[in-house]
From TrEMBL:
A Gene Ontology BP annotation from the UniProt entry: DNA restriction-modification system
InterPro entries named among the record's database cross-references: Restrct_endonuc_typeI_TRD, Restrct_endonuc_typeI_TRD_sf, Type-I_RE_S_subunit
Pfam families: Methylase_S (PF01420)
Coiled-coil segments: 172-206, 391-421
Protein's recorded name: Restriction endonuclease subunit S
Sequence ranges assigned to domain Type I restriction modification DNA specificity in this UniProt record: 20-180, 231-412
Keywords: Coiled coil, DNA-binding, Endonuclease, Hydrolase, Nuclease, Restriction system
Similarity comment: family membership: Belongs to the type-I restriction system S methylase family.
Organism annotation: Campylobacter hyointestinalis subsp. lawsonii
Molecular function via GO: DNA binding; endonuclease activity
Length: 433
């Protein structure tokens, strides 16, 4: 790569900034065409979908429920390999990608193909830059800024960098190579994270059903297929027989959460998004006086979610190890007990417990679990002294695993940020190729 001094000029477009002096800026309609070919009569029933992470994929791989009949797709449009597909309602948050397929796309998607002097891969990279995506805010029609449908007439008038065709091709090829290297590193780190997560699940299940020294213990059949053999001196009990109390939380709305509130509280959605295995402080606060009714929990209590969209998440449990009295919101089940809190929480999140929580719920779109179902969960119980030993062992092991995964996650974030920065620098001519 030869070094040379590039002269720059102001592009006149704020998101682009300075560009090489010999580059131009052109409206999108002069660089890309919208494909307006419809699917009536039906030419294909191969439906394409769009995700922020994976780009354009077959609809069947998205995991969406329900089939689309041929009658449903006569209003769809056609897309071809090397078309840029973008979601007119979500492009500002990165719902855009380059298609590798011929298929039918939703009417809310646009399919764009290149004009004679435009390289489609170069322009796809422009669409990948968050700076460009952010510049599209305000062009749409709707209530929420990130869910506004951007009319094609507005998109057509957006200005884009327009280098000579040979440079477009060169930049696209350079980014293909660089992004492939970055993506492989990210995939490798994601594999490591998933491997550690699976190891963690396996370790927890092994410890809470077999103990820390299974080689020196005598075993007996638990009588429950998904649990199998357990140490001879351990017990199996339903949760209702070891619970002091099982009860539900009461609704706490967003409007009833205050930064300066005097009472810590947990809302059910936060169990999915903000809490892991255990916590000793709450993220949210409220005032008791604004609530119609209250449900409290304290040290050692285990909280379960009642509702979820994913079957594997239903009945997610966390244990509270703080010492302040707290309030539980609606769709939360609270378990009060006299077992070792950390051990019982691990036991209720292991494979055999998850199998019980999800049993018979596979076909439901929104999954619910009741207090009665929670109370009837079987749990394997060693003596309290062994519970303590197992919990302390798992705390240390899981902390190491979580720390490793946290480090890998930070590396992934850094790589993705570098990739975005690299793409932006290249497609606006600020980095010499």
């Amino acid at each position: 790569m030869k070094s040379r001094i590039l002269e720059f000029k102001d592009s006149g477009i704020s998101w682009i900034g300075q560009i090489p002096k010999h580059w131009e800026v052109k409206r999108l309609k002069f660089t890309l065409n919208e494909r307006k070919e419809n699917n009536k009569p039906v030419k294909t029933d191969f439906i394409l979908s769009l995700t922020n992470e994976k780009g354009v994929i077959p609809y069947s791989e998205k995991g969406a429920q329900g089939n689309i009949s041929k009658d449903d797709i006569t209003g769809y449009k056609l897309a071809y390999p090397n078309d840029i597909i973008l979601n007119s309602m979500n492009v500002v948050i990165g719902s855009v990608g380059l298609s590798s397929y011929f298929g039918a796309i939703s009417p809310v998607y646009y399919a764009l193909y290149s004009k004679e002097n435009s390289n489609i891969k170069f322009y796809n990279y422009i669409f990948q830059t968050s700076v460009f995506q952010n510049s599209l805010k305000g062009l749409g029609n709707g209530i929420l800024e990130i869910r506004m449908r951007i009319p094609m007439s507005n998109l057509n008038n957006v200005f884009l960098p327009y280098p000579p065709l040979n440079e477009q091709k060169k930049i696209a090829e350079f980014l293909d190579k660089k992004c492939e290297i970055i993506d492989k590193r990210v995939e490798n780190l994601e594999r490591k994270i998933n491997t550690l997560k699976e190891y963690k699940k396996s370790l927890i299940s092994e410890c809470v059903t077999k103990g820390l020294n299974p080689k020196i213990l005598k075993f007996k059949d638990s009588g429950i297929p998904w649990i199998g053999q357990i140490p001879k001196h351990w017990e199996i009990k339903k949760l209702k027989y070891i619970a002091t109390k099982i009860y539900k939380g009461n609704g706490i709305t967003k409007e009833q959460v205050f930064e300066n509130g005097d009472m810590p509280c947990v809302r059910y959605g936060e169990i999915y998004t903000k809490y892991n295995y255990s916590f000793d402080e709450c993220f949210s606060y409220t005032f008791e006086k604004v609530l119609n009714s209250t449900s409290y929990f304290g040290y050692g209590d285990i909280l379960f979610t009642c509702t979820g969209e994913l079957i594997e998440e239903i009945g997610k449990n966390v244990v509270y190890l703080g010492h302040k009295k707290c309030l539980a919101g609606g769709d939360i089940i609270i378990l009060n007990h006299k077992q070792n809190p950390s051990f019982l929480n691990y036991a209720l999140d292991c494979n055999y417990a998850r199998n019980q929580k999800s049993y018979g719920k596979a076909k439901l779109k929104v999954v619910h679990i009741s207090s009665r179902e929670i109370s009837n969960l079987f749990v394997v119980l060693p003596p309290l002294n062994e519970q303590k030993e197992i919990a302390e062992f798992l705390d240390k092991k899981c902390e190491k695993i979580d720390r490793l995964n946290e480090n890998y996650t930070k590396q992934i974030t850094t790589l993705k940020e570098y990739k975005k920065s690299l793409i932006y620098e290249c497609v606006t001519g600020k980095k010499e190729i």
